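>> received
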Amino acid sequence: MFKKIFYLTIVIPFLYLNNFAQDAKEIVKKADELMRAKSSYSEITMNIVKPDWSREVSMKAWALEPDYSIIYITEPARDKGTVTLKRKTEVWNWLPSAQKVIKIPPSMMLQSWMGSDFTNDDLVKESSVIRDYTHKLIGEENIDGMDCYIIQLTPKADAGVVWGKVIAWIAKNTYLEPKVEYYDEDGFMVKQFIGSNLKKMDGRNIFTHWEMIPEDKPGNKTIMDYNKIQFNINTEESFYSEQNMKRIR
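>> returned
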């Protein structure tokens, strides 16, 4: 009898919680895979919005997941030809006006990328949501007609991430991610990432309109609109090199 009570009160709840945690990781993984592939090519328009001005930047981006990407600026004319290269945890910029390749030092990783609300660190750390965090289902909520899981991502002790925690809303049926909140180590929300404008691109239904909204800068936001995405393109690691930064078009 004692063994039966022990099993009912200790073992079953333990197994339930263990499966619950595993489910949370699987949900995050499926949401991450929806926007990723082994490789990709995209054309993006970025609008940087401030209280008293705004600026539009157009770009092309190539990626070989999870460690390599190149972003080539096509507009405006004064920035055309500027290239950002990511290789694993390192970032370089090619500035055609100065004819220089500049490696971004660790001290500048939290600085703004192209004047936006994205940082250099965002470019490097964007692929670590699975390996660098533990995952926990903390609730459910309906957002814009979508029933969503609410999942808290907590960084592992040895993970080199800047966030104290991340909270993601992931749609149950589609694994779309309409909202993500980023918090500092003191538990204060730093920014939100909001997705909308569902479209089919290269066979996948994805959000093509994204807004990064900093919490401490009222009236500021960065808008990313995906105009084209191709998944699983033919690309090699050698494409993502300092030499190619100067040749890419």
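>> Confidence is low (pLDDT under 50) at residues 1-21.
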